[in-house]
Amino acid sequence: MSNPYRLNSILDWIAAGLRWLALLGLAIALGWGNSLTFASIVTLLAAGMVYISLTLLIALDQPPPYHRYWGIAVDLVIVSLLFYLNNAQFGGLGWALILPGVIASLYFGMVIGGVVALAAFGLQSAIVLLSSDLLTTLIFQVGLLPLYIASVVSIGIASQRLRVSENRPSKGGRETLKSESDQRKVIFKLVSELSSTLNYQRVLETALDTSLDILTGSDDHQTRMVGAVLLYAQSLSGKTELRVGSARGFTHSDLRVTLDGTEGLIARAIDSGASHLQTGGI
Q1: What are the φ and ψ backbone dihedral angles of 228, each rounded to 5 degrees?
Q2: What is the reported pLDDT for 4?
Q3: Fewer Cβ in 10 A, N or C end of the chain?
Q4: What is the spatial distance between Cα 184 and Cα 213, in angstroms, rounded to a whole number?
């Protein structure tokens, strides 16, 4: 069976990792190009505080409502501002505005990721156009276009494969589902049979057969385990004892066995009102 909670947690951690990698890359690019202005440092620190808070909330399994949506919006604001503050295409940050589209593609698939990437691409073109002519802007943006497409498509495919993998029931999961379905069928069968008869012995036999069917996962009367229903009865001497009311796999002599029920496994089960497993001799 799929586990949406686990899948969402995995996606959140991947997104957090991508954001921290991007922030590290931005800091390195700005430091390498000697472009760490005061405004850039403040923007990086603000981004770091936001990402730290979001990462801590994810680690505590308490992500804020709609964190995916406003997280992408924060990504777009941060990378756009850094790109604007550092001479646009000449600051070595041309790749920065790919981040919002990549995160959107991770969370929502290639279509939504493509829409977000297109918006970021348009915003980046406008920023470049503020300090360059139209021809320079077109050359710069066309050069970045394959990077936008490759990033969004690759992350979208990886995200889709992850979803398919998480939603595919494992072999054990399929067996569990089959077992639960079989048990429900047996219970419904028991209720139907018990409601259709007033014969006391028939009720005991049906309850015993159903219990053994559930335990063994089979209705094959030839291969299932030995079992019995023990009932309290009054002996001729006035003593209370346990007698076999119904049994499967017992010999004729076993059917005549009586038990006190005051010691051993049976006594422990009666006293506690719970099932007990005995691996050795009783």
Answers
A1: -155, 155
A2: 54
A3: C
A4: 12
CA distance 266 to 273: 10
Paired with 155 in beta bridges are none
Please give the C-alpha separations between residue 279 and each of 2, 26, 230, 241, 276, in angstroms, as whole numbers.
36, 64, 20, 25, 10
- Mean pLDDT per 10-residue interval, the chain, length 282 residues: 63 88 86 76 90 88 85 92 73 82 91 92 88 84 87 88 68 54 62 62 71 63 67 71 78 78 74 68 51
Distance spanning both ends of the chain, measured CA to CA: 40
pLDDT of residue 250: 79
Q: How many CB atoms lie within 10 A of CB 47?
A: 23
Find out whether 222 and 235 touch, Cβ atoms under 8 Å: no
The burial class, CB within 10 Å (0-12 / 13-18 / 19+), for 2 is: middle
Whole-number pLDDT of residue 166: 64
- How is 84-149 classified by DSSP, letter by letter? HHTTGGGGT-TTTTHHHHHHHHHHH-HHHHHHHHHHHHHHHHHHHHHHS-HHHHHHHHHHHHHHHH
**What's the rounded Cα separation, in Å, for the pair 91 and 37?**
12
Contacts of 258 (CB under 8 A, 6+ apart): 235, 241, 242, 243
Q: How many CB atoms within 10 Å of residue 102?
A: 25
Task: Locate 222 and state its tokens.
Answer: 């030839």
